[in-house]
Amino acid sequence: MNRFWLQAAEVARKDLLIEGRAGEVLHITIPFGAVALLLLPLAVGTDLTLLENIGAGLYWVIVLLFGMLVAFRQTADEGPAQRDMLAMMMVDPVARFAGKAGATAALLALFEAALLPVVVVLYDPVPVGGWGWVVVAGLLVAVGMAMIGTLAASVTAGLRTRNTLAPLLVAPLSLPLLVGATQVYNSLLGGDSPFVFLTLLVAVDLGLAIVGVLTAPIMEET
Amino acid sequence: MLAVNSRIVELQGVGVRFGTVDVLKNVSLDICRGEIVGVTGANGSGKTTLLRVLATLIRPHSGQGQILGKPIGSGETAAVRGRIGLLGHTAALYPELTLAENLRFASRMTGVDEARADLVLAAVGLQGASDRRLDQCSNGMQRRADIARLLVSMPELLLLDEPHAGLDRAAADLVEAAAREVAGRNGAVVIVSHDTHLMQPLVDRMWRIDEGELHQTNGAMGESDKRTPQKGAT
Q1: Which of A96, A110, A175, B208 has the most other CB atoms within 10 Å of its CB?
Q2: Topology classification of domain B7-90+134-226
Q3: ipTM computed for the complex
Q4: What is the pTM of this model?
């Protein structure tokens, strides 16, 4: 493994270790997301057809909204002193981006997997063939969200308004992911091919990766 | 072998501006290998900014010079960061990780043998606390661990920002030993502190910074002065 991947793997390992100790995704964000999924049936009543129809879409909305929390948590462990340390150790900024996004993507995938049984139990969404594609869409959403969160965190690092500014950046950037993920499910539901929307998700992820790679060195120097 | 009297840092007319505020004005400073230099000054006088310029973390808006052979203000300067150790106000470590995990992380990132992490932890007297999380350590222990982090990569240029803050005598001795060790192997050390008395026994030359302007002062003549007969004062 070359130095770049070693550094990226080390950053990801460190972030996952810190999350393992803090347990915020496991003990706070996942239960919080499950409660959010529980609240809607209480609000709209027990219209089972309605719940079946909105279940999948709501799942993705919850994943995106709460995914922001996961992405931001992953970047909160680095203050100015830690950022200086990484710069002084000449850690490749792109390796940092890759490592942080990788760790966040793994946590988001865990978050998605944990909420899936909740949405099935509460909403009983209409089953579709080709669930494997939904899983692929979930992984692409996790990777995309992780990169958006990492980018937003580096743009807002050190700003006093970080906590409000970062979600404002993330929410609109996440829209293509939301559209892609919900349409993959809808395509399968209608018996159509999901490839157009899977391609959209791949394209968004690739675009984010390019932006991340190009901006990481600039972000470090500013 | 490196030349004893070669200049590790040369700054000429360096200025740093944050917005409309001139934080450093026309700063000129030479530091030779084997030298320990002190910079004192009041709060907000520009001490930390000067240290961050030397760490290549801030690009000056004016002036010229070199740090470890690379011209300042260019993209090239960042290439020497791995040869510079910076001790800031707060520990540049991760609170949720143990001391050993923090140092092993630093050693893996810099490509240094992990065994050195354990070695330097013992050198700063923390071998018994290696499995303790940083956020469960006292401020003094955190500072020691941060010094250990610096020693992992054996820097040529050691930059210490208020290194005595929050340290007992034994820990302060460690800082001084680390500074002498770096200077002794032909590196250089810059210590920034508002407390002249703590620095005086250690440094070869002392500078004072007032509202961003650097002036050499008289008085500092430490032991390492004897090792470096020629100084690069400007």
Answers
A1: A96
A2: Rossmann fold (3.40.50)
A3: 0.83
A4: 0.84
